[in-house]
Amino acid sequence: MVAALVILSVLVYLLSGGTLFTPKVTLYLYIPDATGLASDSPVRVDGIPIGSVDSVGLSGTNDPKRIVKLVLRVPEDRLPSIPANSTAQISVENFIGDRYVDITSGTSPDHLRAGAEIPYQSQTDFVKSLDMTQLEQQLREVDAVLTEIEQGRSPLGQFVRGEKFYTELRQKITDLQRGIHEAVSTSTTIGQVMYSDDLIRKVSQPLVDLDHTLAAIQSGQGAGQYLRDTAAHDALLAQFADIHRTITDLTASDFFQSDQTYKDWNRAVIGLIRSVEDVNSQPMFTTTIVYDNINGAAQELRQTLQDFRQNPKKYLRLAF
Question: What is the value of pTM for the model shown?
Answer without folding.
Answer: 0.37
